[in-house]
Amino acid sequence: MKIKYRISKDKRCREINDFIQKEFPHLLKEKKPDLVLVSGGDGAILHAIQEYNHFKAPFFGYGTGNLNFLMNELDLNKLKKLLIKIESDKVSLRTIVTKKISVKIQKAKSKKVIKVGQAVNEVVLGSKLMGYHSFLITSEDGSFNNFEIKGSGICISTDLGSTGYNFNLGGAVLPLGSNMWSLLGIVCNRYLEDILIPNKISIESISKRPGLSVFLDGVKQKYSISYGDKVIIQKGDAVKLAFYNQRKFFEKRIDISSRYRKG
Known about the structure:
Blueprint: E1 3-6, H1 14-23, E2 35-40, H2 42-52, E3 59-63, H3 76-87, E4 94-106, E5 113-119, E6 122-126, E7 133-139, E8 147-157, H4 165-168, E9 181-188, E10 193-196, E11 201-205, E12 213-216, E13 219-224, E14 230-243, H5 246-257
Parallel strand pairs: 1-2, 2-3, 3-14
Antiparallel strand pairs: 4-5, 4-14, 6-8, 6-12, 7-8, 7-11, 8-9, 9-10, 11-14, 12-13
C-alpha cells in the first residue's frame, strides 16, 4: 500500500514531521497514494480532506491536537511498526465511510451558479451570534416548502459532523453510516431541529441585512450572500477515515451521546 504524508506547519507536529523525513522520506513524494497520513488535530484532517480527497483514498490521522476526535492516538514507535506493516499489506485498517455536503450559491440578479465547495462536518449560514437574517427553506423531497425562519443562522451537519457544532447547538448525534443530515436553526424565532435524508435543499436569503456568509467546517468562504440569493445544498463526495483502533473512536461518540442521558 502506498502512503502519502501531509507535512504540517503546526508546532505540535514537529516531532512527527522530523520522524517521517528521517524514517519514511518517500511518503512526502508519493503522488498516487492508497492512504493519506495526516498529523495534528481534527482541523488538520478536515483541511487535508479538502486538499486531497481527489485521491479517493482513506485518511489516517495521527493525533497531536487537543481533542483528536477523528485521529488515531499512538506513539511514534507504534506508528513506525504500523507504517511498515501497512506498506507491506500485513495489516488492515478499519475504515469509516461518510459523505460530504456540496454547496452552491445561485445569485439572484445574474442567475449565475457558484460552486462554493464541500463540507465534511457541517455547513453554517450566518454572520455572528447576535446577527439576524431571514431565510426561506425549500427541499426537493417536500419536507420544506417555503418554510420561513428568522434568526442568527442555520446549521446543516453530516452524520460524522453531528458530534461537533451541531451537538453544541443541541442537535442529535446521528448514527455513523446513516448518511443523514441534521438541520438546526441558530437562535431562531421558530423551532427548527430536523433529521433529514440528504436531498437537494434551497435556502434563500430574504433579508437585506448585510454580512450573511457560508462557513464550511468552520471556515468562512469568500462568497457573500445577498438578498434573493439561494444557497443550494446537496449530497457530496464520499470520505473515508481509517483507524488503527476503531473502538476508541466509537467510544468517544458514545461518551458524547451519553451526555444527553440523566442518572
